[in-house]
């Protein structure tokens, strides 16, 4: 029997996933720090293997031929769930390490049980799902109650992880709708596939289509959220075109230059440091960004070594100047400064960094935190690019 359109669609999705796997492995090879790209690649290839095994159970000559492929198919599914949680946690830590290790252990044990237990399947009890409109017959074998329970638990756990991701990034839903739409569509299709497996609905398995959409959605999010490249591009634009100034920042070579000049830095009054503000003159902060980065407080320049010698401090100042008008959300700032770090530790580090910056500029009220956004108060802080 020839290949049907349904089987061809499965092979097409598998081919796209294989290409995505190679692409992400190449990106990971270029930057080994982005471990989530490696997990994302294994996530794609595991689902591709599952889909490939599934196609071998369609329109087979006898049930025994489908038995081996179905057992391999169900063996790969727990591995898929394992790479799912590894990818999610390596990109943005949501679950504790203990939970991740426990989930991995249970997934491996389930795969071993499905693959090795002789009672997992009964070759004499076979069922066929016929879909005349598609011209396919899917052969399935009966599983033991224990394997069936563990298998269903793993699927529900994967769905729960997906919704956990949606809740974690709920504040970014309006900025990027691709990920939540892809997740909801995939979870709905998985639920329909479960109903199909239980013979509750006469529909074919369609989750591979929504999974492909989900992969495109995740890939778009990963592309848009390359924080290091994004910041570097903004900084290069700032340094190249002052008229198009959107923020203040320095390149790596300029940072080295400033560090060499810091030893010769002296205090001197700034003629352009007056700011139209109702606060005391001694509390006014003026930031020079065209040229070398300079801070002035009450007409007196703050030594550059206070900021430029500390990389995290300098990076924080760059981001705050880039987002001078609207500020930056706490979660986004944590991703920029401490990607991959536990949220609690990263938040403590951010508080300590803000405390040191407030101490350096001499006016704690100039650096404000409101509605989960960090920003310079424009009534207390003025920059030279505002005067252009």
From TrEMBL:
Q: Where is the signal peptide?
A: none
The biological processes this protein is annotated with in GO are: regulation of DNA-templated transcription
State one molecular function term (GO): DNA binding
Query: Could you tell me the keywords of this UniProt record?
Result: Membrane, Transmembrane, Transmembrane helix
Q: Which InterPro entries does the UniProt record give?
A: 7TMR_DISM_rcpt_extracell_dom1, AfsR-DnrI-RedD_regulator, Sig_transdc_resp-reg_C-effctor, WH-like_DNA-bd_sf
Q: Where are the transmembrane segments?
A: 6-29, 36-55, 75-92, 99-116, 149-170, 177-197
Indicate the segments forming the 7TM-DISM receptor extracellular domain, all copies: 16-217
Asked whether the UniProt record includes S-adenosyl-L-methionine among its keywords, one would answer no
Name of this chain's protein = 7TM diverse intracellular signaling
């Amino acid at each position: 029997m020839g290949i049907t359109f349904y089987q061809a669609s499965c092979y097409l999705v598998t081919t796209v996933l294989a290409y995505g796997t190679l692409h992400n492995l190449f990106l990971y090879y270029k930057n080994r720090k982005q471990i989530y790209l490696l997990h994302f690649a294994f996530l794609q290839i595991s689902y591709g293997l599952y889909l490939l095994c599934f196609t071998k159970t369609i329109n087979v000559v006898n049930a025994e031929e489908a038995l081996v492929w179905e057992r391999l198919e169900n063996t790969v599914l727990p591995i898929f769930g394992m790479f799912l949680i590894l990818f999610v946690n390596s990109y943005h830590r949501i679950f504790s390490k203990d939970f991740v290790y426990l989930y991995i252990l249970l997934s491996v044990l389930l795969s071993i049980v499905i693959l090795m237990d002789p009672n997992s399947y009964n070759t004499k009890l076979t069922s066929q799902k016929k879909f005349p409109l598609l011209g396919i017959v899917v052969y399935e074998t009966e599983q033991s109650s224990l394997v069936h329970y563990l298998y269903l638990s793993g699927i529900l756990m994967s769905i729960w992880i997906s919704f956990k991701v949606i809740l974690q990034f709920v504040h970014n839903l309006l900025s990027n709708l691709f990920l939540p739409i892809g997740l909801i569509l995939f979870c709905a299709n998985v639920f329909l596939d479960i109903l199909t497996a239980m013979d509750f609905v006469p529909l074919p398995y369609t989750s591979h289509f929504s999974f492909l959409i989900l992969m495109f959605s995740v890939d778009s999010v990963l592309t848009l959220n390359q924080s290091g490249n994004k910041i570097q591009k903004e900084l290069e634009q700032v340094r190249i075109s002052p008229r198009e100034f959107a923020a203040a920042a320095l390149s790596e070579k300029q940072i080295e230059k400033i560090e060499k000049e810091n030893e010769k830095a002296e205090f001197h009054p700034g003629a352009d440091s007056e700011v139209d503000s109702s606060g005391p003159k001694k509390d006014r902060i003026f930031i020079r960004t065209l040229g070398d980065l300079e801070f002035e407080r009450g007409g007196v320049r703050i030594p550059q070594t206070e900021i430029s010698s500390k990389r995290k401090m300098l990076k924080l100042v760059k981001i705050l100047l880039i987002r001078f008008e609207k500020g930056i959300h706490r979660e986004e700032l944590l991703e920029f400064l401490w990607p991959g770090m536990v949220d609690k530790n990263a938040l403590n580090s951010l508080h300590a960094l803000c405390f040191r910056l407030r101490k350096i500029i001499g006016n704690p009220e100039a650096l404000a935190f409101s509605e989960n956004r960090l920003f310079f108060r424009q009534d207390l802080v003025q920059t030279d690019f505002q005067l252009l």
